[in-house]
């Protein structure tokens, strides 16, 4: 799965304090305007697929957050809102599947039950100041 990186930007990590580069991980540049929150999967840990949440924002560095397939949609949305300092209402979309993007409306189901598979992304969409959702792409 491709991960976004902004070259020349400082690397930041969330949980263990180690930047990506110090962990020996390489990143591929993709859409520079859309950083992704990624959790790389350890090859020995099949219960921890890699999920990414693209977000157009002012952040200059990709940050990591690891989610398990047993985490609920509500938990993931809540964690991403904390990490991204989202104060307004937000909603979580599953993207990267052939059907296009799918709104995840059931907060109590797991990512696995929501049909998330390795290689898919999550999109956290924030309501604007006027109380409107962004127009569909």
TrEMBL record:
Subcellular location: Cytoplasm; Golgi apparatus; Membrane; Mitochondrion intermembrane space
Basic and acidic residues bias: start-end ranges: 17-27
BP terms from Gene Ontology: cell differentiation; spermatogenesis
Role of this protein: Induces mitochondrial fragmentation, possibly by promoting DNM1L-dependent fission and may play a role in mitochondrial morphogenesis during spermatogenesis.
Membrane topology summary: Peripheral membrane protein
Cross-referenced Pfam families: Ubiquitin_3
Protein name: Gametogenetin-binding protein 1
Stretches assigned to the Ubiquitin-like domain: 48-135
Entry-linked Gene3D superfamilies: Phosphatidylinositol 3-kinase Catalytic Subunit, Chain A, domain 1
Superkingdom of origin: Eukaryota
Upper lineage: Eukaryota, Metazoa, Chordata, Craniata, Vertebrata
Positions of the UniProt region annotated as Disordered: 1-49
